[in-house]
Fold this protein.
Amino acid sequence: QVQLVESGGGLVQAGGSLRLSCAASGRDFNNYAMGWFRQAPGKGREFVATITRSGANTAYADSVKGRFTISRDNAKNTVFLQMNSLKPEDTAIYYCAATRAIAPTGPGLYVYWGQGTPVTVSS
């Protein structure tokens, strides 16, 4: 069992930056690949980024590539999402999730989910 708690969301102007954190409790954090997803009002849950268990490999949605960076600190059971050059279309609830699969991009393969943290980007 893994419990995930996101933090770091908030209101930011377009072009600004935010750093999201996801703290995991439970056992064997380094046995899970981690992902970030987001859900805008009236839309489905969208893949943002994923990172393998060791942190050696990452993948991003085309919409955030070059602006967002996912990373993890296995010693602190935490995964991060650094978001730069934010745009109004990045406004959403951001969720972190854990999976034993190899860093998939589909939400269906993630077993554990946090409650989400809201991000609002004003124009």
